[in-house]
Amino acid sequence: MRQILADCSASISELKKNPTALLNDSEGSPIAILNHNKPAAYLIPAETYEWMVELIDDYQLGKLVEERLKDKDQAVEVNLDDL
To answer: How many domains does the chain have?
Structure first.
């Protein structure tokens, strides 16, 4: 059995009937869409998705900064006025 990673769940039939109502009822939380009582997909509001994408981007940028800081001794000093 697969773990359901959401507090709310709905069947595919419920999703087909009124997807907007499901999103409104979830109050921003993810909704597990079930097919034969197994998660087939997760539905999240656009605002939640956008927040998740920003969070992932920030994490990846942080990792890039950490990687580049390891090579700090190879950095070339530049004067901003020269640019």
So the answer is: 1
